[in-house]
Structures are given as C-alpha cells and as structure tokens.
C-alpha cells in the first residue's frame, strides 16, 4: 500500500473498516481512485449488512456477499426486464465482478439443466476461487418471494450432482431482488440452505440520502441479529410448499 492509500483510510472511524479496505487494496491491487470509490459506495457497510443476515448455522460463508449491490453503472431504463439486467451484467462484466467481490470468476450464462425431460435455466453461474465453490446467481424483479427458495434449491442440488468436481465444496446460491423482504428471508432461514438474498439498486441516490439509507439498513440488520441471539428461532415449519416458476412467460413474477 502507498501513503496515498493510507491517507484515504485514516479518516475512517472504524478499525474494522480500515482493515477491510486495506485488505481489498492488497488482494485486488486497487488504485487510490478505486479505493476512494469503494469507500464512497460503502462497501464495508454493505458487507456487514449481508453478514448480519447469516446465522451461526449458515452454509453461506461470511464476508463474501454484500447487500445491497449497486448496479447503477449499467444505465438501465425504467420498466426493464430480467433479460435486460442479465445482458447489462454481461456487457459490463468487469464492473460487475468488481462490485460483486474478490475471487469470483464467470462460468456461464443461462446454464441449462434438464430435469425429467424439462429444460430449466439458471441466469448466471460463477465460481469462487478461494471458496472452491460454484455460485449460482438468479436475478429477480420486484420483491423476494418464498417460491424462490425452492427454485434455487433445485438449481443447487442439480449443480452439486452433475457439475461439482471432487475437489470442490457444495455450491451456494445468491438471489438478487429489487427488494429483499428481509424478514421473510430470515424466517425462511435461507442461509441454512446455502442461499443468500440481497437487493440490487440500479441507481445511486444522492450522497446524503445514500448514506442515510445504508445506515438505516445496517442498524435494522444488527437489530435482527441481536434478536436471534436473545430469542433463537424455532425450527421453520415444514408445511410450506415451494414451486418452480417457469421462465416461459415475461411476467414480473419470474
């Protein structure tokens, strides 16, 4: 790290944040401009929000994902569809990987799976080099729905059976939604199934508004974490049913 990097880190109040960004500089060879950008976009706080959503029994590793993800650079217009978001990610793949985090490599778009003679398609497939895991990414418009859990579990079980190598760990998944519905995600104990859920924002609010929103989300996430410690969750009811959603139509419910 250069002295210019250190100058950027000194104003940060949290030692943990300083160490996080210092590690990012070293691992990702970030220049001063990229470091300044990571700090202004609250990368550390967004990682902490994602960590706070995970339980002690989580299969999803800590310190890997963020929440929310900022996809403002894609220039998506109003009323875009999932295909537009997927295309934008692939067009700006380098920027997406920088936002997504260190260690991710792109594997495949529209991963085709045949189950009982039916074609099922996963939006994006990545591989995490340090974790030695496949990472399935599913893009959703609108609010998170309970049905998405069963859909992702199906993808992960198929990948585990047919794509995972002997030297690799069990695949994990992340569902990116316009709205995460965080209480529902907590009640469904998604992390215990190896699934993370995060919001994506396609525009960046003004600085003051952005900082306020991130701070509010972080406080709420920590409050939920504290409630789990004081009042451990009971076993999730087993009578919930999850249905695979076909992608043949272009409804918002995809």
Quick tags:
globular; alpha/beta; 254 residues; six-stranded mixed sheet
Question: What's the structural blueprint in terms of helices and strands?
Answer:
Layout: H1 3-9, H2 15-28, H3 32-40, H4 43-52, E1 69-70, H5 82-91, H6 93-100, E2 104-115, E3 118-128, E4 133-143, H7 147-162, E5 172-179, H8 182-187, E6 195-201, H9 207-230
Parallel strand pairs: 1-6, 4-5, 5-6
Antiparallel strand pairs: 2-3, 3-4
Helix pairs in contact: 4-9, 5-6
How would you summarize this macromolecular structure in one to three sentences?
This protein has 254 residues and is an alpha/beta fold. The chain is built from 9 helices and 6 strands. The protein has helices spanning 3-9, 15-28, 32-40, 43-52, 82-91, 93-100, 147-162, 182-187, 207-230; strands spanning 69-70, 104-115, 118-128, 133-143, 172-179, 195-201.
- CA-atom Rg in angstroms: 18 Å
What structural class should be given to the helix and strand makeup?
Answer: alpha/beta
Largest sheet: 6 strands, mixed
> What is the strand arrangement across the widest sheet?
1-6-5-4-3-2
Spans of 5+ residues with little confidence (pLDDT < 50)? 236-246, 248-254
> Average pLDDT value?
88
Tell me how many strands there are. Answer: 6
What is the number of helical segments per DSSP (H or I, 4+ residues)?
9
Distance between the termini: 45 Å
Strand content: 15-25%
Outline: globular
| Helix content class | 40-55%
User: What are the secondary-structure elements, in order, as H or E?
Assistant: HHHHEHHEEEHEHEH
């Amino acid at each position: 790290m250069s002295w210019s990097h250190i100058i950027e880190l000194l104003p940060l109040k949290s030692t943990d944040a300083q160490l996080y960004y210092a590690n990012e500089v070293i691992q990702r060879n970030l220049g001063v401009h990229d470091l300044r950008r990571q700090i202004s976009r609250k990368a550390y706080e967004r990682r902490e929000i994602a960590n706070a959503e995970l339980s002690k029994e989580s299969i999803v590793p800590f310190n890997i994902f963020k929440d929310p993800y900022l996809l403002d650079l894609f220039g998506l217009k109003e009323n875009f569809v999932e295909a537009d978001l997927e295309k934008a990610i692939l067009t700006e793949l380098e920027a997406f990987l920088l936002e997504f985090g260190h260690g991710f490599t792109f594997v495949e778009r529209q991963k085709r799976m045949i189950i009982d003679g039916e074609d099922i398609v996963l939006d994006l497939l990545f591989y995490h080099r340090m974790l030695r895991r496949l990472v399935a990414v599913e893009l959703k418009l609108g609010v998170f729905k309970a049905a998405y859990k069963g859909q992702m579990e199906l993808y992960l079980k198929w990948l585990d059976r047919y794509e995972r190598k002997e030297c690799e760990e069990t695949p994990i998944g992340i569902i990116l939604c316009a709205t995460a519905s965080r209480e529902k995600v907590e009640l469904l104990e998604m992390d215990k199934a190896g699934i993370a859920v995060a919001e994506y924002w396609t525009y960046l609010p003004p600085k003051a508004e952005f900082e306020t929103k991130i701070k509010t989300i972080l406080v709420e996430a920590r409050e939920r974490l504290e409630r789990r410690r004081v009042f451990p969750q009971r076993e999730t009811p087993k009578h919930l049913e999850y249905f695979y959603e076909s992608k043949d139509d272009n409804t918002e419910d995809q």
